[in-house]
Amino acid sequence: MTAIATGSTKGPPAKVSRHHGWWRRNGVSLVFLAPGVLWLAAIVVYPTIATVRFSLYDETATKFVGLHNYASVFSTSEILTAFKNNIIWVLVFPFFVTFIGLMVAVLTERIRWATAFKAIIVMPIVFSTTASALVWRTIFDLDPHIGVVNAIEQTVSDWFRTPGAYPLNPSTGETAASLATFNVTTGSGGSLVSHATVHPGDAVMMGLTRISAVTLQTLGAKFPVAPTKMAGAITGLVWNDFSTSQPNNTSTIVSGEQGLPNLRVSLLSSTGASVGSTVTDTSGDFSFSHVAPGSYHVAIESSNFQSSFVGTFWLGSQSLTPVSGLDQTAQSLLSVPLIDLAMIISYIWIWAGFAMVLIGAGLAALNREVLEAAEIDGANEWQLLRKVTIPMLAPVLTVVFVTMVINVLKVFDIILNMAPGSSQGPATTLALTIYNDGFTGGVHSGLASAVAVILFLLVVPAMMWNLKKIKG
User: Which residue in 93, 81, 76, 72 sits closest to 425, CA to CA?
Assistant: First the structure.
């Protein structure tokens, strides 16, 4: 009895002691963790629960509609466009940014001043995405005098297709025929031909209109002078047959009109063959000397109206379709908005440095003895990279790739700031749809909440897999 009584009196203090010991070991940690836990509950847990709840209600967040918003997500054309653009981003961006990061990380190990070079590559990530988007919006500007990309395109285009002195603007429907007024008719290949037949000793006058005043000023155009007839020669005048003082006078030279200089004209025989070519002077006059007897026409060559480079509207709504001959629905699904490519290029510029840093850290941790052994066995640089370095870097490359997938699944700010308002529709993504529907289209939008839940479900598996790889 004594033993039993003694045992019963010692039991409770032991339990209290164990409980007191647990609190003494973990109490301080819990106290320090409590503010963080409460803060995370306020900014992560509660918004997540609230978003799921709002996704089950209508736009006013008062009427329960069940899964109706989720059904609308997959039947709304704007949101389907956002899904398509997100797929384009996921398929293109992570691969290229990982590849570029790998190439830069490998090459910087073989150059002098590697630290300075790496600092330059990493620098874009220091700036805000908004600032970078505004910079790249200027770089891709349609005007070649502003946009660097279009300036380069214009230079290359002019090498192969030199614009004429009087370039047309095809975007406005302007043609050479629309310039013809007095004694001019349309010829072959976009040329303009004198309506009247001329012979040696004759003079011909050809009036055009709608010529840009800026072009005339640049070319140094002067007041037109009526041509003088010359024996054995064909002379003529080409002038801008328009005057604000006498706008309806289209047959004679009046005050305010100007000759068309630097205009290439040809003399055509009765068979249509060119037998001579010359260029008009600053007053628009020209002449063909020593002309053989016969009937001729004077032609203003089509090369004078060769259109200049008008630029590529990178930030517009145009799309590239990789496969032709498809129906409209298939083309819509497979087309890639040009602005998506422009934004992906700018986003690669921002994140290539991040990829380079992570991959560079992986390179620094590689077993150099394996690399040296491969070199001794006769492996060249390409074989060393493909068969040794990349397989050994596979875990790091996978982490970088999946991190970039998570990044572009919720890409938002670069589209909001880089895409003009008219192009945000074709370039929209799921994150931008959430912003437009939930904040600019109405408070607590049920549809926006449903899209947010779907985006969350897409991101979480990739995030968990990435965390598992990092721990492994």
Answer: 81
What tokens were used for 402?
A: 């999946």
The CA-atom distances, in angstroms, between 121 and each of 97, 200, 396 are: 12, 70, 19
Q: What is the pTM of this model?
A: 0.75
Q: Please, is 209 exposed, middle or buried when counting C-beta atoms within 10 Å of its C-beta (0-12, 13-18, 19+)? A: middle
* Residue intervals in the chain for CATH 2.60.40: 170-305
Question: Which residue, among 226, 274, 230, has the nearest Cα to 254 in the 3D structure?
Answer: 226
Fold for domain 170-305? Immunoglobulin-like (2.60.40)
CA distance 226 to 238: 10
Per-residue pLDDT of the chain in tens (472 residues, 90 and over written 9): 444 444 445 555 555 555 666 666 777 788 888 888 899 888 888 988 988 998 998 887 788 888 999 998 888 888 888 999 999 999 999 999 999 999 999 888 888 888 888 889 999 988 889 999 999 999 999 888 899 999 999 888 888 888 888 888 776 777 888 888 888 998 888 899 998 899 999 999 999 988 888 888 889 999 998 899 999 999 999 999 887 777 666 778 888 899 999 999 999 998 889 999 999 999 999 999 999 999 999 999 998 988 877 778 898 877 776 666 666 666 666 678 889 999 999 999 999 999 999 999 999 888 888 888 888 888 888 888 888 889 999 989 999 999 999 999 989 989 999 988 878 888 899 999 888 888 876 555 788 899 999 999 988 888 888 777 766 6
The superfamily CATH assigns to domain 68-151+327-471 is: MetI-like (1.10.3720.10)
Report the C-alpha gap between 117 and 114 in whole angstroms: 5
